[in-house]
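Lab channel / #folding
Pinned by the channel admin:
"Please post every new chain as: sequence first, then the structure tokens as a reply. Keep commentary short and put observations after the output so the thread stays searchable."

First post following the new format, from NK:
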Amino acid sequence: MFIIMISPECAPVAKVGGLADVVFGLSRELEIRGNPVEIILPKYDCMRYDQIYDLHVDYHDLWVPHYDHWVHCTVFAGMVHGRSCFFIEPHSDRGFFSRGVFYGHNDDDERFAFFSRAALEFMYKANKHPDIIHCHDWQTGLVPVLLYDIYKNVGMTHPRVCYTLHNVKHQGVTGEFILRESGLKPASEYFRLDRMQDDGNPFAINLMKSGIVYSNFVTTVSQQYAWDIKTSDQGCGLGHTLYTHSDKFGGILNGIDYDVWNPVIDRHIPYNYSIETINDKYKNKEALRHRLLLRQEYKPIIAAVGRLDHQKGVPLIKHALHYAINNGWQFVLLGNSNEKSLNDEFLAIKAQYNDHPDCHLEIGYDEELAHLIYAGADMIIIPSLFEPCGLTQMIAMKYGTVPIVRGTGGLTNTVFDVNTSDLPFEQRNGYVFYDYNHHGIEAALHHAVGLWYSFPETFRQVMINGMRYDYSWNNPGQNYLNIYEYIREK
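Reply from TO:
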């Protein structure tokens, strides 16, 4: 079947977080299974243009309705590592996507409402009739509304919409003017609790809620997160809407790309290895220590890799760092934050431990170093406050690095505690704690490091258990195809 992805991100050309990896990885898996996929994105001025092959104008004069006038756009096409992508460039004095950043402006709601209308207008004018339109996050929440209340009336009756929630903390809560901007009239038809009105603010429109209400099926990125956002305050006000639409809502765990994250073929690490040659992992540990000027001594390396924000459990990461050093272990951190205050906090810690032989902090992102940390560390901590899916733990396990996670969201669907899981031992692959406090992460660290020191062969088996899990896009790809077939037949 023919699938079009409409998304604000796609790796590696426009990437802020895991959403970009999902759009690329899922599209690739669907194409491997014989389904043509096209991806529609904004044409940001800050994209990685070096990652686009044969970028050229595909549609010269796309005129998109915007309030009471039309905005002239050009649509470019190009290949991104084998994926067919279209980039919409508005020629407007608003400079919607010419701001040097992907997000973070006060008019993000208007920018992406325009993009949603432009994506559908392009599909209509270019005579594209996909079986499935797959939309992602609040930025595309207007797509199913526009499709079913405007574009189906001019002949786009074929597509069905699958809508994926990657993080419900960000919902696109905005004002009534969005309806006028997008051409949705009269406003009273949409300003209703059973449609687009925000559940918490009677004067606001909720774009993510709109996508949930109007789409044919709604997914989120793990089974546990689907439950959490429907039944707890993690839903950030969307719980009632998700409960109302339970018959078309479910969780599908994200996958990772084993062509990129795989110690057998990883070109970023000095020594490739597999389960059969796992001793070579320890050569990467030596290489990591050499690169970061850590002492070569018999002790575990505990790592933290990824974005530094409150969702990821920053207070517990900081506590674990000090706790590890005070106990004579080694700690490595690679990450940065969109918040200057958080970056400054970690830069201060970096200065504190600058000459310490058991600690290294890298505030920023370095692709090659990330791969080496996954290959060289013994354990990785992911003490998230909440976690829709999480890719870090999946990557770590592929490299035989044992995850220590807080039991929330997708972390509970992928990490099964060595001591408390009811699964057979050969399926236990890490450590899980639940209390979001210092005691919780200290206890988990002691269990993991204690096993590493006292029962190295058992710890080694836990490493191998994790490496055996298949967290590729193979299973999620089939699950999405099942959903597409289900809604296509309705």
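NK: DSSP finds 16 helices and 17 strands in the chain.
TO: also worth noting, The mean pLDDT is 95.
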